[in-house]
Amino acid sequence: MGTGYAIDFQDLIQRTTMALATEFLFGTAVNSLQIAVEDLPQPYNHPDYQASVEAFSKNPANEFSEAFLRAQTVAAERDRAGWIWPLAEIFVDRAKKDMKTVNSFVVPFVEKAVKNNEERNKVNGEVQGKREVEDDESFLDHLVSQTSDKTILKDQALNLLLAGRDTIAATTTFLFYLLSQHPEVSSRLRAEVLEHVGPTKRPTYEDIKELRYLRAVINETLRVLPPVPWDVRQCINGAVFPSPDPKEKPIYVPPEAAVVYGALMMQTSEDLWGPDAAEFDPDRWIDDRKQRFIANPFIFVPFNAGPRICLGQQLAYNEMSLIVTRFLQAFSSFNFDEAAIPPEGQVPKNWANGKGRKAKERFRPKVILTMSSEGGMWFKAKAAEDSDN
């Protein structure tokens, strides 16, 4: 960051969460962070921008994550096309090449875990599903103690990788973007981190629980820029929804009907959150405005809600808290650099005349399965002063 040019925080955070997620799942991280600084994406206003774009796609450190992203894109497009999507792929499977790359990384871990579990069961005379998992084992080690079906194991591992990498990366990226737009929040949050954790110490779980304002900032980020802006659920049985118009009859929803709900719209609705719903204000999670959420928890659904709430919610909070804390220990401020954004990511001028969040945003959202910033999220970060350390 000492070059004078901005760095793509979105790329950096995605690399970090990919390494953390694969370490948690498989016990070994992909080499997403093993890349030289000069091989990172360059900003649009850098003289080597075009060359860096070409080099980036060929770097081995990006092979797995880029293939994973392309496969997600195909999956999302198939979902939106509905039942007719196979017609568009009669002659070629668009995901085949990238899934081969993804599977070449995942399958060996699955096969090794299954083999180790079978050998362990033979030696100890244990039954599938009855073995206690050791503290130092990976999540995959836990899964193989329940089933030896390699297809199920691979699919569940990829499902968890998607949930554990993209949503956390998106939220953390958006959090730093919002800090860059609200320096007073950034200063207050950093002061809390330095007070409770210090300038260099790695935060413990107990430290993170004390960072009350950090939790408020994370929640407010999840509210105004949810990583999954809309989602779909399917009814098992028939249900009745209340009509938006109290004068009208309830709405019948038949069994197996798909129900789409928009977290982004719900969480920035003035009807649900008050007249300042479009404003980024972490204090709403601390002051009396919190009563809106307490009275109706279903107005805040970044992790879904009810009996189907995300099982990884606390893992996500802790991982995001750790990443944000470490960055705030190292850097004192984050400045959004619009000149670094490539043309496809630049915000149209007429957005300034829009309503709600649209009039405020300085990045262009892109949605595949999760939301991200088109063209990256570029910041110039100021290193912490020596006096902090």
Automatic annotation (TrEMBL):
Its cofactor is heme. The keyword Chloroplast does not apply. Keywords: Heme, Iron, Metal-binding, Monooxygenase, Oxidoreductase. It comes from the Eukaryota. GO terms for molecular function: heme binding; iron ion binding; monooxygenase activity; oxidoreductase activity, acting on paired donors, with incorporation or reduction of molecular oxygen. It holds the Pfam family p450. PROSITE patterns: CYTOCHROME_P450. Heme binds at C310. InterPro entries: Cyt_P450, Cyt_P450_CS, Cyt_P450_E_CYP52_fungi, Cyt_P450_E_grp-I, Cyt_P450_sf. Belongs to the cytochrome P450 family. This is Cytochrome P450.
